[in-house]
Amino acid sequence: SAPIIAVGIFDRDVMPRDALENPELYDTGRRGLDLNAMKLVETLLSAIVHSGAILIMMAYALPHFTGRGTGDYYTFGTSVYTWLIITMNYRVAFLTTTWNWLSVLSLALSFLSYVVFLLAYCYIEWDVQVFSIFMFHVPTYMAQTPVFWIGCLVAPALALVIDIFKAYMLLEFFPDRRDIVLETAGKGRLKEEEVDEVQRPETR
After folding, report:
1. Is the pLDDT of residue 158 over 70?
2. pLDDT value at 190 more than 50
3. CA-CA distance, 115 to 120, in Å (whole number)?
4. 33-67 per-position pLDDT tens digit
5. Could you report the per-residue pLDDT of 80-92, keeping only the tens digit for each?
6. In 10 A of CB 78, how many CB atoms?
7. Distance of CA 141 to CAs 99, 103, 118, 135, Å?
8. Model-level pTM?
9. Percent of the chain with pLDDT over 70
C-alpha cells in the first residue's frame, strides 16, 4: 500500500502557479467532481476490464504451467498474485503526476517487501502447523516456468493499453477544466523553453 499512499501525499494535478492563475480549479474539490457516483462507476468498470484482461491471460497461461508440472494451486496462484502486484504498481505509476524520490522509493519498497516475503515464507522451514508446507520452494518452480516471465511483461502491458485508450477517449471527448489547464500550461512551458533556447545564444 506504500505506493498509493505516496500518491495521496505527494501527487498534485497542477503546479501552484497554474492553480493560482485558474482559481476555478478549486471547484473540483468543492463540488466533488473527483469523488462522486459517476467516478465510482468509472473506476469499478475500469477495474472490471483490467481484471478481465488478467483473467484471460491466466486462462491462456495455465496449460503452459500444467505442461511443465507447475500448474498446481500454489505455484500458479503465486504467479497470478505476482502479476497482480506488478500490475497494481504499474497502475500507481500511471496515475502519478508528480514524481519525486519518495514516490520511486515507495514503488521499490513495495516490490522489495514482496520478494522478502516470498523468500522468508517459501525457503525457511517454519512450523508446519502454522505455515503451509506446500509453499516450500514455490518461487523456484515459478521462476523456472518461462510463461511466468512472459506474464510479468504482458500483464502490465495489457493494463497500459487499456489505460492509454481510456485516457485518450476521456481527454479527447470529455475533458474537464483540469485537463484543459494542464494541456495549456504544458504548451506554455514548452513555448517558454523554446524562447529561452533562442535567447540564450544572444546573451553570450
Report:
1. yes
2. no
3. 9
4. 677 788 888 888 888 988 888 888 888 888 888 88
5. 999 999 998 998 8
6. 20
7. 36, 32, 13, 10
8. 0.75
9. 77
Q: Which amino acid is at 85?
A: I
- What residue type is assigned to position 62 of the chain? L
Does residue 92 contact residue 4 with C-beta atoms inside 8 Å? yes
Task: Find out whether 159 and 90 touch, Cβ atoms under 8 Å.
Answer: yes
Q: Cα–Cα distances in Å, from 144 out to 60, 65, 87, 155?
A: 18, 10, 21, 18
Supply the DSSP string of 63-103, one letter for each residue. Answer: HHHHHTT--SHHHHHHHHHHHHHHHHHHHHHHH--S--HHH
Grid cell for residue 83: 502479476
CA distances from 153 to 55, 64, 69, 83, 157 (A): 15, 16, 22, 9, 6
Buried b (16+ CB within 10 A) or exposed e, 3-12: bbebbeeebe
